[in-house]
Amino acid sequence: CSDMLKRCEDTKLALNWKKSHFMVKEGIVLRHKISKKGIEVDKAKIKVISKLPHPMTVKGFEVS
């Protein structure tokens, strides 16, 4: 952890201490769950997508 903080200091990278978490076993980063198992999709994201209504028209299938 101290090596990472030293690199941030050397490169003049400012950390937002309210948003920073250190020494955690897992966390959500850019809507993906990061843990010792690797990168996984956040389960909450899957729940939201599964509850979306099915498209009924061709326009509903289009991705913007």
Structure description:
InterPro entries: DNA/RNA_pol_sf (IPR043502), Rev_trsase/Diguanyl_cyclase (IPR043128). The protein has 3 helices and 3 strands; from the N terminus they run H-E-E-E-H-H. It is α+β, with helices and mostly antiparallel strands and 64 residues long. Strand 2 and strand 3 form a beta hairpin. It is elongated.
Please supply descriptive tags for the structure shown above.
elongated; 64 residues; 3 strands; alpha+beta; 3 helices; three-stranded antiparallel beta sheet
Can you summarize this structure?
The chain is α+β, with helices and mostly antiparallel strands and 64 residues long.
Secondary structure category: alpha+beta
Order of strands, widest sheet = 1-2-3
**Helical content band:** 25-40%
Backbone shape: elongated
Rg: 19 Å
Beta-strand content: 15-25%
What's the helix-strand series? HEEEHH
Major pleated sheet: 3 strands, antiparallel
Secondary structure: number of strands: 3
Q: So how many helices? A: 3
Assembly context of the chains: single chain
Low-confidence stretches: none
Overall average residue pLDDT:
85
In whole angstroms, the N-to-C terminal distance is 41 Å
GO molecular function: DNA-directed DNA polymerase activity
Protein name: DNA-directed DNA polymerase
Organism: Tanacetum cinerariifolium (Dalmatian daisy)
InterPro entries: DNA/RNA_pol_sf, Rev_trsase/Diguanyl_cyclase
